[in-house]
Amino acid sequence: MADEITLPQNYPDAENPRPELSAEPVNKKPLIIGIIVAVVLVLLFGGIGVLLFYNPAAAAVLRDIFIIFLGLGVFVVILLLVMLVVITAYLVLKVNDLTQLLDREIRPVLGKLQDTTTTIGGTATFISEKAVQPVISTASMAAGVSAIFRALFKRK
User: Fold this and answer.
1) What does pTM read for this prediction?
2) Is the C-alpha dihedral spanning 129, 133, 138, 144 positive or negative?
3) Residue 68, SS3 per DSSP
4) Is 65 domain-assigned?
5) In total, how many domains does the chain have?
6) Is 6 within the bounds of a domain?
7) 58 near 51, Cβ under 8 Å?
8) Domain with 33 in it
9) Is residue 145 in some structural domain?
10) What are the b/e assignments for 110-132, b being 16+ CB within 10 Å?
């Protein structure tokens, strides 16, 4: 039983990250639809080109309509760019105002914080010198006296 070799199992439900490498046949329906659409578009534009080539008056009218629409498109693009520049300038000014506001509000808070830390440092030093040091000295002296008494009056 221990000498048996187990082969990896195929899990049909697992999604293949590289379907182009699988042994299953590839679905060619999207490729065929894409080729048909491309051929139809080429034939459509080719037919329009031939019609316009043999009918110059219609080509001139269509050309003028396209020129008008291109002009309108350029106008819209320029208008959008101007709006983008104005909005960017407005945002830059607002960020500058916010920076100045934070500078005005945070500097006093930082000054007060520095004063508070200095006061806390002084308080800690004072407590250390006036309260903790005497307690430690007294406790160590009591421990020393206790050790002396134990050494002198040791029971054997």
Assistant:
1) 0.44
2) negative
3) helix
4) yes
5) 1
6) no
7) yes
8) 29-134
9) no
10) eeeeeeeeeeeeeeeeeeeeeee
